[in-house]
Fold these 2 entries.
Entry 1:
Amino acid sequence: MKSGKYSCNTRSETLEWITAIIDFLKPFSFLINAHVVNFFKDKQWEAVDEDWMSCLRNEKLENILLIPSGTVQDHWPASLKDFVHTLRSLSFPREQADLQTVLSDVNVAPLSTVLSQGMNLKKKHEVEVLSSVVSSVVNSVGESTVVDVGSGQGYLAQVLSFQYKHSVVAIDSSSHHGNVTDARAARIRKHFASQMRKSGSGNKCPDAPTTITCRVLSTEMLKSLTNVPLEENDLDLDAAALNEGPKRSCSLVLAGLHACGDLSVTMLRTFMECEEVKAVVSIGCCYNLLSEKTSESSCYKCGFPMSAGLKSLGFSLGKNARDLACQSAERWSSLGEDAGLQNFELHSFRAAFQMVLSKHYPEVLATSPSIGRQGKAFRRQKQRKALETPSKLETSRKDIDKKSTTHTSSSFEKFCLSAFSRLNLEHPQDLDLTATWNEANAFTELIGPYWSIRAALGPVLETLILLDRLMFLQEQGDSLEVSMLPIFDPTLSPRNVAIIAKRL
Ligand SMILES: C[S@@+](CC[C@H](N)C(=O)[O-])C[C@H]1O[C@@H](n2cnc3c(N)ncnc32)[C@H](O)[C@@H]1O
C-alpha cells in the first residue's frame, strides 16, 4: 500500500502520510472552504497565486480538466507544477490492483446474463469484481454469512447467493429496494431451479438473500440485525422479522458496495466490536454525508475522524472539504470539452445569480438558498441542446467564450428566471440581468481554472478519510490483517478503494 514516498503498511507509516497531508493542506484552507457560488461576489480568484491564474486563464480547456489527474504543462509556473505533483504524490493511487497477486484465491468470473440483468456497465464491473473478492475473503475465514450493508437493489447479494452459494443477508434502509431485491431474487432463483431440474444434478438451488429493511444508524443496530447476541443496553429491534428466512452461520462477513457516509464507518466499528464478524470489505462513498465533530456539536462516534491518531491531531474537515472529497480526478479527465464547458458555465451562472441575490435580495441570500436541482435540470437541458448542435472540439476556450457572449447572456437570463421560480421569488421586471452578467463575464474564464485547482484537492481529501479508516483498524493491534486496495477500474468506477480486514 504505497504512493511514491508514502506508504501505509503500518500504523506509524499511515500516521506519517496523514500528517504530510494535513501539513500540505493547511495553506489551502481558503480554497477548500470556498463556497464557489460566491466566486464573483467575493472575487475568490484573488486569493490564488496571481501567476497561476493568469497562466491558466488562457489554458486550453482539455488541459484544465486534467489538473485533478496530476497532469501539468511545461510552460506553467514551477510553483503550480509543484502543487499539482505534490497533490498527486499525497493521493492514494487508483490504478486497479492485480487482484490475483495481492489476494489469495480471487477468481473474477463473468456474471451470467440472468444475474447481470438490469446492471449498467459500471455496476456489472463492480459486482463482478467485488463478489469475487468477498467470496475469497469468506473462503479464507471459514463458513460465514455475508451481510451486504446498504445493499440497494441486491445486485451484490444475489451474485454472492446464486453464483458463489454463500448465505447472504441484504440490509437497506429503503423498503422499495428490499422489494425490488426480493422480486429480482425470485426471478433468478426460478431460472437456477429450472436449470438444475434440466441438468438432473439433484443439487439444491441456492437460497435467495434474506432482505431486511432498516436504517442502520449505529453498531448496536447492525449487531442486532445480524442476530449477534445483544448486550443489555442494545436496541430492541423486531426480533421476529430477523429470525425469519434460511438458517445463517453465526460467523459473519460484512460487505458494503458504496455504503454511504457513516454507514461504512459503522461497518468498520461493528467489525471491531463484534467477535462474530470475522471480516469486513468496505467501499465507501458520499463523504459529504459523514458526520463530524464540530466545535458546536458533540458527536458520539462520528464518521470522521475515527482513528485515535487523527483525533489526537485535532484536525477537522468541515462541510466543504467533505463535499470536495467526492470529486474524482477520473470524472474530470473523462468529462470532455462540451460537458466541461457546460459545467463551468453553469457555475458561472450560479455565481452571477448570487450577485443578483446579493444586490436585490440580501435577506434571501442570508438563508443560504439552494437551487441545486434547478441547476442540474438546467445542465441536462443544455446537454441535450449540445448533443443536437455538435461543437468543434479543437476550438480554444477563448474563441468559444467570444462567440457565445450574447448567447450566454440570454442563457443567464433563463437561468435566473428558473432560479427565481425555484426560490419562489417574483422576478422584478426592472432588474438589469444583462448588466450583472457583463460584470461577471469579465472573470468567467477564471472559474474553470479555479474549480479545477480546487477539485485537485479532492483525491487528497478522500485519501485522508480512507487513511483515517485504515489507521483505526491498524490501531487495534496485530490480531487483524488489514489492507487497502483499488479493486475496480477507476475509469469505470472511480470510487474504487476497498478496505479489507480479517481477524487472524
Ligand atoms: C450508493 S447506494 C449503493 C447500493 C448498492 N450497494 C449498490 O452498489 O448497488 C447506497 C445504499 O445504501 C442505502 N443506505 C444508506 N444509508 C443507509 C443506512 N443508514 N442503513 C441502511 N441502508 C442505507 C441506500 O438506501 C442505498 O440503497
Note: Residues 34-87+332-455 form one domain.
Entry 2:
Amino acid sequence: MMYDSDERRWHAVANREKAADGSFYYGVITTGVFCRPGCSSRLPNRANVEYFASCKEAQSAGYRACRKCNPTGNSKNEQNEQKIIQACRDIEQSDRPPKLKDLADAVGMSPYHFHRLFTNLVGVTPKKYASGHQARRFKDSLKASESITDAIYNAGFSSSSGVYSRNRDRLAMKPGDYRAGGAGITLHYGLAECEFGWLIVAATDRGVCAIEFGDDPALLPQQVQDRFPGAHLQHAGSDFVRLLREVVRLINTPHSSCTLPLDIQGTAFQQQVWDVLRQIKPGETLSYTEVARRIGNPKAVRAVASACAANKLAVVIPCHRVISKDGRPGGYRWGAERKRRLLDQEREEA
Ligand SMILES: [Zn+2]
C-alpha cells in the first residue's frame, strides 16, 4: 500500500492503520503534536492535519512527538521484529533447541503470541527453525574439516545413531543425487593401514559411505572418486583419526559390533541384498544362490553377485561372506586373496 496522496494518508489515519506506521507521520496544527498513522489518540479534524515523510521533518516544522504512539521510538512492529530477530539469535547460539516458553519469556511475550509472531515473520515455527539450524551447523562444522564423529557431537546431537536417523530425510542425498554419482556433495576421506592392507574411509555428512581396500594408498582416493564421479573429495586431516581407528578396529576384530554412522548408498535392489549380507555373522558364509533366495528372488543370482561387487563398504557390509555354491571363495572386488584371508581370520576367531 502506497501512501502517496493526502487522500490515502488521511484514510490510513482515520482508520488508524498500524500497517502505515513508518511510512509517514502526521502533525496536528492545533496541538503541535505529531503522530504515527496508527496512533490511538483522538482523531483530529482533517483540516488541521499535515503530513511528513520523517520525524525529522515534523520536528523541524515545530512539532513535538506524541507520548502515546512515540513516533521517534521504534514502532510496535519494529519492536516485535527486533524481538523475533533476538529469538533467532538465541536459537542459533544454543547447543540444544530451546524450549518455546524460554524463548517467549526472554522477549517478554506469551508463548502463544510469540509462536504466532515468529511463524509469521520467519516463515517457519521456532521448532523448525531450531532443527534446521542444527542441521546447518552440522554441515558447517563438517566444512571445517572435522571428523564425521566430531561433527556429529559438536552439532549437539546426543548420539551418532540419533543423528543418522534424524538427519536421514533432511540431509540425505536425494535419489537423483545418487544417480548422478554424488554430484555436488563433498566427501571427506582419510587413509589408514590394517592387517589386510591400506584402507580409505570416506564419509558424507550423514555417515561413512565408502570403505575400500588397496595396496597403494596413493591410488585409493581415485578409487572412491570412481564410485562417486560427481563428488568433491577432500582430505579430512588429523581429525578423522577417531573414525579411522574405529574402522580398523572393526576389521581387525570382526566380532565386535559396528557403531559407525553409515550412509549406505545404492539402488533399492542393492540395499535389499546388502541388508541380507549384514545379517551374515562373522565365521559364516552364504552362497549367491542362497542370498537370492532370501531376497525372494531365487533367479537373481547374477544380479546378487553384481550387488556384492557394487558394495562400497568393505567388511561393514560383509560381501566377502558370500561365496560360490561349491564352497570356493569366488570373486572379491578388493582381490580374491584378501577375501580368503578375511574369511580365514573370521573362522579362526569364531
Ligand atoms: Zn500519537
Note: Residues 175-252 form a domain with the Double Stranded RNA Binding Domain fold (CATH 3.30.160.70).
